[in-house]
Amino acid sequence: MIELTINGRKIQAPDDSTIMQAAELGGIKIPSLCKYKDIHAIGSCRVCVVEVEGARNLQASCVVKARNGMVVHTNSPRVREARRVIYDLLISDHPKECMSCARNRTCELQELGFTLDILETRLTGQQREKNIDRTPAITRDSTKCILCRRCVTTCRDIQKVGAISAQNRGFNSFIGSALGLPLGSTNCSMCGQCTKVCPTGALIATSSMETVWQALENPNVHVVVQTAPAVRAALGEPFGIPMGTSVTGKMVSALRLMGFDKVFDTDFAADLTIMEEGTELLERLTAAVSGEKVTLPMITSCSPGWIKHCEHAWPKELDHLSTCKSPHTMQGALIKSYYAEREGIDPKDIFVVSVMPCTAKKYEIERPEMQNGGYPNVDAVITTRELVRMIKVAGIDFAALEDDDFDAPLGLSTGAGVIFGVTGGVMEAALRTVYFLVTGRKLPFDGLHVTPIVGFDKIKTASIKLENVLPEYSAFEGVEVKIAVTSGLEGADILMKEVSEGTSPYHFIEIMGCPGGCIAGGGQPRTEREDYRILRAKALYTEDEAKALRMSHENPDIQKVYAEYLGRPCGEMSHHLLHTTYTPRGNFNEYLPAD
Amino acid sequence: MSECSTSCPAAEDPTLQRVRRIAESYRGKEGSLIQALHAVQSAYGYLPLEVQKIVSETLDIPLPTVSGVVTFYSFFSTEPHGKHNIRICLGTACYVRGGVRVVDRLEEILGCKVGHTTADGMFTFEIARCIGACGLAPAISIDDKVYANVNPDEIPQILASYYKAEEANA
């Protein structure tokens, strides 16, 4: 421990603390801008400068270490004036469009102006030219960028994709891809993690709210909404509901009030995914134990950010991916076929909206594969953050809503479907069903939770021995199924390197593109809390445990859809509606045909 | 990355193959990106996107990071250089004695902007920050030759001598 004096008060702090951390321990908050949690502190914005006695220059407190006996002033006239000048310079070329900006009232630059008590614009400098780069998932407006580089750290150091970096020098600096190419032509996975860390409106999820409002207004359109598992784990937060509370019932009520004709649950399609993907796994394993040549490990395909990354970084390993579409596109395909036929509605009059924790799903629905019979499986994806905006626009008092239930026939789900939203959840859901199908018994784990793959370690592994199997699966007797789970694209690359070198010991791998899984997806509400993943995961596991049915194959509506429409898992109808193909891209898109 | 990506070495231009070999000699050496780019530029002349991709792939550094370094340092160029390099001094002395007028006139005569190369490939023209000839301000240098007290009106005459020399050589 060291002791230093900050603003006249003696403060004790651990040896390795920065001045900012030490000040926080003493209850003193130093304003900052470019710093982000524990992942990004480079002292570039200089907003956190403080006066250190004996030092000639002001020091950036987010990077300068506290030392024993240091005397620091965080609120002297010199510090206050320096911060104002820094702020003046930061906004001298910043568009003053706050009232019509997507980040109005959630912008950290705007908030900082309030914190620093800025009452006038003292400098107006040269302005950068408007140049908006829009992909289906992410929209970049570099005039709003303050060059904090949080996005660069997130993309390059956390996700290890490195689709963007600082380009050029001085006033011409900007954050972008090589030579300023549009994001859509790069290896960006569209995971949207950058949109969660951007302090301003420079990086946002591309909005689909207007299209959804228009569909809701159109009396000739049957508007159906579905909600991903992870949405309910975070939607309450911006309405003041404690983090970690699942708000499924209120969410359904809000969607009904907004005017959706049917409110379905993507968790249903998660159960469906388990039937399809579980069957696909059993087919591959059966081939493997009988000595046939088959591609293993099989890898999950629910996360479109992961899929796009795989197509860029591992274009030769695409056979390892399960051919299953992601759950919400499966659901969309069923809505425009099974549901449409059942209800006698022409699929051309159905508009499917998916509420997702994800930005990549906005990109995914525009893939040419994601359509059947000429109709897109899903017409619009809105993120959890967009749903929050729409609920507020609609004037709904979310926290006061009563609980409501999803509609039939695509609204009922088991606990296995719920945990799809968290890392390890898809694997656990698959094991619950596959183990049962093969042995006739429930998974031998406390509460059905496969404990080695629960939690937030980068790579989680387990192996499950199949013993006393049912007669029809006798080939599996004594087989040890090896599994691995990762979330975040860095972990994905670690496991894929083994796959590409032929040394991967696993049979089945679950990969989610965002660190922590969908609960921490690029479309989820922003939060500064360090423990947000743990709390949101808890919300899903609690909902899972409260369900009467916890294995996907037990879902009576899933059984019904197979009996009435699909036939059998991985059958011809399933292949037509629920499965897909992938496109080799390469890191520079060199595998794609040149335009 | 599973295999060759920009294009397969077999089909690759021999100069690009050379770029790949140079870049490979820096593979696995921490912090060698600038040196690698320097060596590659010396061999290839400049650093277009195709060349940056090879460096990115070989050193396993994301392309935007490579391009960030290339565009940060004025020493690196993403365009081919002309036969002759004009550098206009805009150090303090040259600046106050009319260096900017020299820049404007050059842009007009050469028909290209600072940092670029003329359409005929004769001249690349760049800004220098003090070439150490402050007593001779405003000064420019063409290749290794320094021109002192440059009057914008004299520029056509100076450039003409290079075209003349070119003809003589031809």
What features would you describe in this structure?
The complex is a heterodimer of chains A (595) and B (170). Chain A is globular. Chain A folds into four domains: 2-91, Ubiquitin-like (UB roll), CATH 3.10.20.740; 129-206, Alpha-Beta Plaits; 215-268 and 329-400, 3-Layer(aba) Sandwich (Rossmann fold); 275-325 and 414-578, Fe-only Hydrogenase (Larger Subunit), Chain L, domain 3, CATH 3.40.950. The mean pLDDT of chain A is 96. Chain A is built from 18 helices and 20 strands. Chain A is 33% helix and 14% strand. Chain A is α/β, with parallel strands linked by helices. Chain A has a five-stranded mixed sheet with strand order 2-1-5-3-4, with helices on both faces. A four-stranded parallel sheet of chain A has the order 12-11-14-17, sandwiched between helices. Chain B is an alpha+beta fold and 170 residues long. Chain B has two domains: 9-72; 84-169, 3-Layer(aba) Sandwich (Glutaredoxin). Helix content of chain B is 45%, strand content 11%. Chain B has helices at 14-24, 33-44, 49-59, 63-72, 92-96, 99-110, 155-169, and strands at residues 84-89, 123-128, 140-142, 145-147. Chain B has a four-stranded mixed sheet with strand order 2-1-3-4, with helices on one face. In chain B, strand 3 (140-142) and strand 4 (145-147) form a beta hairpin. In chain B, helix 1 (14-24) packs parallel to helix 3, helix 2 (33-44) packs antiparallel against helix 3 and helix 3 crosses helix 4. The radius of gyration of chain B is 19 Å and the shape is elongated. Chain A binds chain B through residues 156, 161-169, 176-179, 186, 313-317, 500, 586-588, 590-591, and chain B through 1-3, 5-7, 49, 52-53, 57, 61-68, 71-72, 74, 78.
